[in-house]
Amino acid sequence: MKILVAVKRVIDYAVKVRVKPDKSGVETSNVKMSMNPFCEIALEEALRIRESGAAKEVVAVTVGPAQCADTLRTALAMGADRAVHVDAGAAPVLPLSVAKILRALVQVEQPGLLILGKQAIDDDCNQTGQMVAGLLKWPQGTFASKVVLDKEKQVATVEREVDGGLETLCLDLPAVITTDLRLNQPRYATLPNIMKAKSKVIKKVTPEELNVEIKSDLEVVQVTEPPKRKAGVIVSSVDELIDKLKNEGRVL
Amino acid sequence: MAALAMLRTLRNRSFTSFSPLRLPIRSALSRFISTLVVAEHDGGSIKPSSLSAVEAAAAISRENSISVLLGGSGPDIGKAALQAASSHPLISQVLVADADIFLHPLAETWAELVHLVQQKGGYSHIITASNSFGKNILPRAAALLDVSPVTDITEISEPHLFVRPIYAGNALCTVRYVGKDPCMMTIRSPSFPMHSESAEPKSEAAPISQVDLSTFNEEFFGKSRWLKLASQDTERPDLGNARVVVTGGRGLKSAENFKLLEKLAEKLGAAVGATRAAVDAGFVPNDLQVGQTGKIVAPELYMAFGVSGAIQHLAGMRDSKVIVAINKDADAPIFQVADYGLVADLFDVIPELIEKLPEKK
């Protein structure tokens, strides 16, 4: 079985983002970029499944501009066998179009499992995995915190993080899984593996070659800073705190 | 019928109040607004987050006719439907999909249901709450309908103009939906609190009808099976809707110490939250996590104990009305968003608070 993993290049999670003065978006030039944390978890899970013998090959995929090749190199250094870069140019691509591109790649690659992060930490959409599952008519296991594959029966048992606790589903393969934070602890790429990754193959394709039209039915009107909270006060004792909450904050 | 007549006068009134400048833009974008709210119910009553979704639907337009979709089977769904029918004056009908396949919130069946109901109803908007149910099913349904959904909306400015936070709430993005109908969205419940007037039961309940499932596409079902739900039974108010939330971070040091926090929560009638650090360390179950990847809360009072205030945590609580931080480290970033900060050892503060706080009303 082959596993396809979708990864995204985003502003590093530790960076405090700055909104551009012209309100057109967030400053991304000269800002540290990394692989989206949820995508790292997705890739780690795919690698573990391959290492357990349940899968033969892990293919990393990304959609985006030329710089995204770096993210794929990281994926290859972590252990992906090969990578596909769908060069969609600099303009942002909506989850629906990403889902259509992934569907097209699934039809080419025929994987038994497609793993994605549950959300990208830049647009915070939480949509792509669900959408590609819908397009493919595959079952979906979103927000997964545990995945157990049964190779014989061709099913995946997925434990999901839902509002009231943990839900367990059984999915027939092929299926789509999106990862939550607690699924695993991603590995670091070692220097020898980073060197090895340089000789691995990154195949470039365009959305046109995949017959996918990039659709944008959403327009960003403006991006602004959230309202600032007014400066708070430091109180010196519990009594003062209770007093403030009662009389100033009026919340007790 | 009286309700319908009222609705019509309301509609006419709001039409005349349009400025001539805005009218052409609006009529070009949206002819008639009718919204489908995909709702959840539990033990015979509509979940509070779904009622927030109804409020959001009402915020799209005052000339909106809202349909509420419920699924499930057994006596509970009948009770929930009755409640939904009288829960908001703009609700014009309640649709019930009564079948065992909707007992569990499987995305495969629910997305097909939304697709079916949309094909019959031709709604201009479809809304659900941005919780684990809504996030799971709505994007899948949107893909079936070939439209881009807008998730996690905090503000509705016009029928197709929305505000949603991006980058863990560090930027607000205003987006305009310019695609075909339906415009599909999930809303953040804390941003659409229930109005008191809509909480009062309306005099005439909306009609309840069954969804005709004879043309339901079942071809792809059975590919996923629901096995079980391990739920955390708790007496506490629901984290997403609580008026007061007390949260513990790594500073609490152990699961045992969280009991102390629970005592305080009991006294305040509060829900207990946690940071990722506290969840990863195994102090509390993951469904208590507040933040970008956990729950988003906006209570009246948020008290953070031993929480440093990472970007990802602030994303989940920065809209709280009053934020209190108790931390030993005076440089902790949490103090930058706190209205009241106390630099002290939480193991001294919590018992003192329990002792000195007034009994809850």
TrEMBL record, chain A:
Residues annotated as domain Electron transfer flavoprotein alpha/beta-subunit N-terminal: 23-214
Lyase recorded as keyword: no
Record keywords, A-Z: Electron transport, Mitochondrion, Transport
GO cellular component: mitochondrial matrix
GO molecular function, one term: electron transfer activity
UniProt GO BP: amino acid catabolic process; fatty acid beta-oxidation using acyl-CoA dehydrogenase
InterPro entries: ET-Flavoprotein_bsu_CS, ETF_a/b_N, ETF_b, ETF_beta_N, Rossmann-like_a/b/a_fold
Location within or outside the cell: Mitochondrion matrix
Complex and partners: Heterodimer of an alpha and a beta subunit.
Reported function: The electron transfer flavoprotein serves as a specific electron acceptor for several dehydrogenases, including five acyl-CoA dehydrogenases, glutaryl-CoA and sarcosine dehydrogenase. It transfers the electrons to the main mitochondrial respiratory chain via ETF-ubiquinone oxidoreductase (ETF dehydrogenase).
Family under the similarity heading: Belongs to the ETF beta-subunit/FixA family.
Identification of the protein by name: Electron transfer flavoprotein subunit beta
Origin species: Elaeis guineensis var. tenera
Gene name, Swiss-Prot/TrEMBL: LOC105031971
TrEMBL record, chain B:
GO biological process annotation, one example: fatty acid beta-oxidation using acyl-CoA dehydrogenase
An example Gene Ontology molecular-function term: electron transfer activity
Subcellular location(s) of the protein: Mitochondrion matrix
Residue intervals of the Electron transfer flavoprotein alpha/beta-subunit N-terminal domain: 35-220
Keywords: Electron transport, FAD, Flavoprotein, Mitochondrion, Transit peptide, Transport
Quaternary data: Heterodimer of an alpha and a beta subunit.
SMART domains tied to this protein: ETF
Any one GO cellular component localisation term in the record: mitochondrial matrix
Major location (coarse): mitochondrion
Family that this chain belongs to: Belongs to the ETF alpha-subunit/FixB family.
The protein's name: Electron transfer flavoprotein subunit alpha
Binding site for FAD: 250, 275-276, 289-293, 306-313, 327
Cofactor(s), names only, from the UniProt record: FAD
Origin superkingdom: Eukaryota
Cofactor binding note: Binds 1 FAD per dimer.
Function statement: The electron transfer flavoprotein serves as a specific electron acceptor for several dehydrogenases, including five acyl-CoA dehydrogenases, glutaryl-CoA and sarcosine dehydrogenase. It transfers the electrons to the main mitochondrial respiratory chain via ETF-ubiquinone oxidoreductase (ETF dehydrogenase).
Stored InterPro entries: DHS-like_NAD/FAD-binding_dom, ETF_a/b_N, ETF_a/FixB, ETF_alpha_N, ETF_asu_C, ETF_asu_C_CS, Rossmann-like_a/b/a_fold
